[in-house]
């Protein structure tokens, strides 16, 4: 009896010792933690520049033993073309909220299971509510906000001394050959519609589209370059080839300022567009659990703060403000509640096809 009792005590002690070592049920010593279930998996991501930086991608890869393969696009049209081609099955695709409808209608996306995400509770309520109207279909969320920014003018004050307060500066003969503007059909047409005073720059009649086309053809002879990508635009300003530019975001301005240039951001009196870029899940995503894990990581306060610090984009997680400086918050316009009152949401337009056709006609004219 004594030997049997000793054996029982020994078994109980061994079980307690194993539990104290922290091995989950069904896991043996020497096996990895919960993270190891993803080891060796890959995420294919289609993204804008500045959204997949080593500062936050590498820690995720190292923690879970995964690889994040990133492809970049320089414009909305290029982004859509890559996603729609089917040559690569992207797990995650980043796009402005107004484009989500375009992708969803062609079954290029699948819904996000928000029950698998814990950080959605920290999204800025007003921004998230505004965004939801453009990314929810049949009560299913197809996207979540990741970053935001306006599309203002950037003006070199060393070269242009007079005050600038209108998009009409991009049509000013005085600056012929010193004007740069983005090679993007949707944003070009919407900006020009704002200049022409049309009430809704995303729902244009055929007559209004023709007026926009003629206005853009009129501008063409003045333009130094139609650029694609942040770096291309910044280089045009930094080299002095352009003195005024239709930007892809305020960070182009702050980057040039950091380089020592006297460049200012201008939100014209006609208003400027504001994009809220979203993360979406590709229709043929292979690793849904890992995809949701990465999304939750990207919208966390810690990663969002790094995005602001690295790229200066507007933050979508309200808790991230605790991790950034007052200057960083100011540069990202997070301290200016009235800033949004001068901005127009980049929405789904009356016809992407018509807009692309119009823009190609302008460039070919």
UniProtKB/TrEMBL annotation:
<dbReference type="InterPro" id="IPR001188">
    <property type="entry name" value="Sperm_putr-bd"/>
</dbReference>
<keyword id="KW-0574">Periplasm</keyword>
<feature type="signal peptide">
    <location>
        <begin position="1"/>
        <end position="22"/>
    </location>
</feature>
<protein>
    <submittedName>
        <fullName>Extracellular solute-binding protein</fullName>
    </submittedName>
</protein>
<keyword id="KW-0732">Signal</keyword>
<dbReference type="Pfam" id="PF13416">
    <property type="entry name" value="SBP_bac_8"/>
</dbReference>
<dbReference type="InterPro" id="IPR006059">
    <property type="entry name" value="SBP"/>
</dbReference>
<keyword id="KW-0813">Transport</keyword>
